[in-house]
Amino acid sequence: MHEMSIIEALLETVRVELQARPGGRVQTVRVRVGALRLVEPSVLKFCYEAAVRDTPLADSQLEIQQIEASARCDVCSLEFPVEESWFECPRCQSVSARLLKGDELLLTSLEIEEGSSSNLKATNPHVHCHP
User: Fold this and answer.
1) Are 66 and 105 in contact (CB under 8 A)?
2) Do residues 80 and 102 touch, judged by C-beta distance below 8 A?
3) pLDDT in tens, 70-122
4) CA–CA distance from 110 to each of 15, 41, 85 (Å)?
5) What is the pTM of this model?
6) Which of 27, 38, 61, 71 could form a Cys-Cys staple with 111, CB 3.0–4.6 A?
7) Angle 16-105-49 (CA atoms, 0-180°, nearest 5)?
């Protein structure tokens, strides 16, 4: 189950962020997952809940934004939805197309309650989870 390795990588990143905020408590972990990653959201949530049980992250929530895949044809410039890793343009049948979205696996933000009860929303679109 590759979802557990994804969660382990994600939680390592979360722990690093928490080290910079002593006394902080994670409320929400938000991730963006592309359709071509073949990640089952319910399994990902199950793995998250299992991994944070009996830890300081036990009360946190995982929010998953699913991203549909799309590509743009290099020949006719049509943008079209993609359902598999291999695709061809539905207009001109060219196999020369560039994937625009749908392969991402990103930690998009953390909502952390500081020790002083003020909320901090840490957003870093450059943090990637690579199991």
Assistant:
1) no
2) no
3) 999 999 999 999 999 889 999 999 999 999 999 999 999 999 998 754 444 44
4) 11, 18, 30
5) 0.79
6) 27
7) 60
